[in-house]
Hints:
The protein is mainly α.
Amino acid sequence: MAAEYSDQEDLAARVACRLNALFQWIRHPESNRPWLDGEVAAVTGVSRDTVEAFRMGMPLETIHPDPPTETLPARLTGRLAFFVERDGRAKREIASAAGFSAEYLAKLLKGQSLPTMGKVEDLAGALGVDPSDLSADSLGVLARHFERSATCQIPRRYLTYADDHPDVQRVTYHLADLEAYRRLEKNLVGVSFRNTAGRLGPGALAEIAAIVERRVKDLPPEEPGR
């Protein structure tokens, strides 16, 4: 039992570290600043308490490296309720747009029926979301949220898999590039990699930033009047 708790504790710490990196380096598309917990909660439907608990390494729900399929009905019910409420239309209108009866939609919202993949796609189309938005767990929803504000794919496994997994390494390198680019943009007047950042390989911007910063420190002080 202690070993199981330790594994879950380690996994929670890993998720917290990775999720905090996304909060730090993936910017809000309108304000160009890091996302706030409340903003992410409002957009995703994941409660603010849940978001904060994940970030502190004290999750309110059990973390799995991959979400178990047996919890899909509960996930679907919760996600569907969020998007139906956010949509604003009457439930019968949403049901009609998806091609089913209002009674069937009511059953889905109560968890009394599990739709086929085809019906999930119809529902997603009616609500203007991706089918995965209706079936993902909280971590999957958060990963997808940051992916929409990023320039690279951020799969759910980035939050839970080991450091040597290719997807984890790819996102980690991407975040290092963002960090380096912002250091350059903030500290070096006239230096911009806006047109070349997309062509640089993983980690390249971090290396460039380190080199430039070392050389800037070695420059002689500017003479008065120049």
